[in-house]
Amino acid sequence: MRALLLCLCLGGWACAEEEAIEVTVPPGLSARATSRLLKERGVVSSSFLFRAAAKVTGAEREIKPGDYRFKRGLSVLDVLSILKTGTTNDLKLVIPEGFSARQIAERLSANGLCKADDFMALAASKRLEGYLFPTTYSVDKHWSAGQIAQRMVDEFQRRVPPLFEAAKDKPALNLHQIVTLASIVEREAVVKSERPAIASVYLNRLRKRMMLEADPTVQYGLGYWKKGLTLDDLKVSSPYNTYNHFGLPPGPICNPGLDSVEAALRPARTEAIFFVADGKGGHVFSTTLEEHLVNKAKLKRELRLQREAARRGGH
């Protein structure tokens, strides 16, 4: 037994070439069939030795399917260890809620997965904004932009349409409109508990045939999330500028998470049609323009006092 294990530890290929060997182990493949596959692909030198090692170590029933890249020269025990732990070509990819397709493209590029321009071209041509579900993915390092996008769209289809279909007393909006509204809520909300109230404001505005005047839609039209919009920004010519176009924009402005989708489906029951930041991460809601102007003036005073305090603290 000891002699066999020693042989397994040292008995890799005599040469240790740097070239990697790609192997896909399909689900349900037996240890015997796996041993033949690995021998055929040149990962191990002996299928018999691999089967013996799998039996001796108890790994026969622990081999995980997946796409693997094996370095040449690995011992049989090293190969078994990789197959048991499922150490594949997968990369953990975190897509935050509220990321736009462009931000996702940049993250993919930064992780060496695909070119940002390739992903953006695909997202634009297929109109995938809003449908690239934000979550943590296990992505194969060799996937194309199309494969990665499809994985995200599949996750959207698995999570969001069932939620839409199951929702009772939801607003008279179709799924695309709900996702569009949810994307605005996603970019506006800081405090999770406020999302239903923010959704209520925009739905109330739609019912009253008021402009939505949502800053994030203007930012999306500009091509980036800009803080401190100017009057010129609010005049920019874009179908996404809800300061000069009535109703919802033509599509989502980001990829919202489930909390924002749920807020759009089940908004708070309010009469509010305005809200302004409270300077602490949340918002103050109001039902009249007069109240709104008072709240805005209060915010300006508080910000001015904070700046003055900061200047005094710096001296």
Q: Gist?
A:
By secondary structure, this protein is mainly α.
Report on the structure:
The protein is mainly α. It folds into four domains: 2-88, Dna Ligase, domain 1, CATH 3.30.1490.480; 91-164, Dna Ligase, domain 1 (2-Layer Sandwich); 175-272, no CATH class; 274-315. It contains 13 helices and six strands. The protein has a two-stranded antiparallel sheet with strand order 1-2. Strand 5 and strand 6 (283-286) form a beta hairpin. Helix 2 (31-41) crosses helix 3 (47-57). The chain is elongated and about 85 Å long. The protein starts with a helix and ends with a helix.
Low-confidence stretches: 1-18
| Helical coverage, percent range | 40-55%
Query: Sheet bearing the most strands, described?
Result: 2 strands, antiparallel
**Numbering strands along the chain, what is their spatial order in the largest sheet?**
1-2
CA-based gyration radius: 27 Å
Instruction: Provide mean pLDDT, rounded.
Output: 87
The SSE string, one letter per element, is HEHHEHEHHEHHHHHHEEH
Number of strands: 6
**How many domains, as an integer?**
4
Helical stretch tally:
13
Our measurement of the CA-to-CA distance between the termini, rounded to an integer number of angstroms, reads 76 Å
Structural class, from secondary structure content? Answer: mainly alpha
Hey, roughly how much beta strand do the residues contain? 5-15%
Shape: elongated
